[in-house]
Amino acid sequence: MDFEVMIVGGGPVGMMLASELALANIQVGVLERLDETTPYSRALSIHPRTLELLDLRGMKPEFLKNGQPLASGHFAGLDTRLDFSLIDSSSNYSLFIPQAVTETILEKRAVRLGAQLLRGMEVLSVVQDEHGVRVTAAGAQGEVHLRAAYLVGADGAGSIVRKQAGIPFIGHNETLTAIQGDVILKHPPATPVVSRYSEEGMIMIVPLPAGRHRVVLIDPQRTHIPKSEPVTLEELRSGMLRILGDDLGAGEPSWLTRFGNAARQAQRYRERRIFLAGDAAHIHFPAGGQGMNVGIQEAFNLGWKLAAERKGWAPPWLLDSYHDERFPVNTSLLHNTEAQTLLLGTGFSPGMIQLRKLMSAMLQLPEANYLLASRIAAVDVRYAPTFAGSSHPLTGRRLPELELRSEQGDVISSFELFRQGSFVLLHLASDERMNARLWPPQIKAASYTLANRAHDEWADVHSVLVRPDGYIAWAVSRSDPDPQTKLRQGLEYWCGPS
Q1: Are residues 356 and 476 located together in one domain of the fold?
Q2: Same domain, yes or no, for 135 and 91?
Q3: Each residue of 174-207: b (16+ CB within 10 Å) or e?
Q4: What does the pLDDT look like over 290-304, one tens digit per residue?
Q5: Same domain, 117 and 208
Q6: What is the pTM of this model?
């Protein structure tokens, strides 16, 4: 084998997955078509749950140095913003950061950990058998043939991996298109962000680094234009004039593109030894800035499972759980982006304007605002329990950022326990029967007490087994008569017989 795991696609999703696998000492190779990181940044924000995941690995400070925290997000560009500050997390904000910067940070980390990045490689064919996957790719030196035990397609909407694996891409083609331009504005708007919706169309303007602005508009006169038709500066400026009444002196474009509302999802995320992640698994209208975020979250879900399989301790069902867990999450994602598309661009009638005003007024209700904020932020994700013994209310939920006190009195964040990407068995009850030597080596056992009572639902928790991606696999109450036996049951279910 050339690699234990091969990834096709070196964007944020592929490089995050490579980083997770390399952290687990898995020999991983990334095949990327481009010779260098793209300067274009389709994604501009990292949402709260993704920030939490980066925090688990100690990566969050690097991103904070390169981005700008924003306390709110949006749903369909409605006037009432989504308030992320209400989320119970130190990452209760969205980080404004160009995708090109995100890719660079993730690539450097993956390579530093030992991932091998092969650029300028165009994948031609993918063939799998019972022993592994063979990839034929074309590079500067001609055709190369590589082999890996497993292959992950993180190669975008047109994924050759998905096509070669014969996985159907279910959904619909675009019914409308929008325009995006990164330009210099000679007369920038008075406010940093512009969001306007009228019978003339929809426009959003946000500042970018280096004195540029991103202009996104849905022009009712141009929504029928195919995505493949190039955007011109004149088209962008004329749309700004119609919708905003001013083109703000837009010029010197660094990127002009057209995008559509095609919505599709792979029928399955696994085909034997082949997996899909990111846009290769699902595409949608880029509403709410969710696409890159869910892709990175998929990388965290899949990485430790592939590592467990390669290390020989994964239970038989574990790799299938990647599809079982992430497919419903992304079905919900497609539903919310379809709803946003309806509100954003399918009609600019007086009736739609009134509907948007009504929705905006409803979002002033804290409960309604939090419902959508937690959904866009992805902190509402919960994986359904798959075993009858894991019926504790915390099972499947994300681990919150708990303040933990050691026996010596030191206080740490619970996230600090996940730097190496292992399972964590967190014991909170000062039970002398608990002994770290009882647990298998892939488990990091840690005994602490809660440093504060901010999380009432944790008051009765004896111990929790937390997955490497920060979700609770198993929890035991203090009232349980035999917590050690209950925990061993959870360990054997999730990590195999010790």
Answers
A1: no
A2: yes
A3: bebbbbbbbbbbeebeeeeebbbbeebbbbbbbe
A4: 999 999 999 999 999
A5: no
A6: 0.96
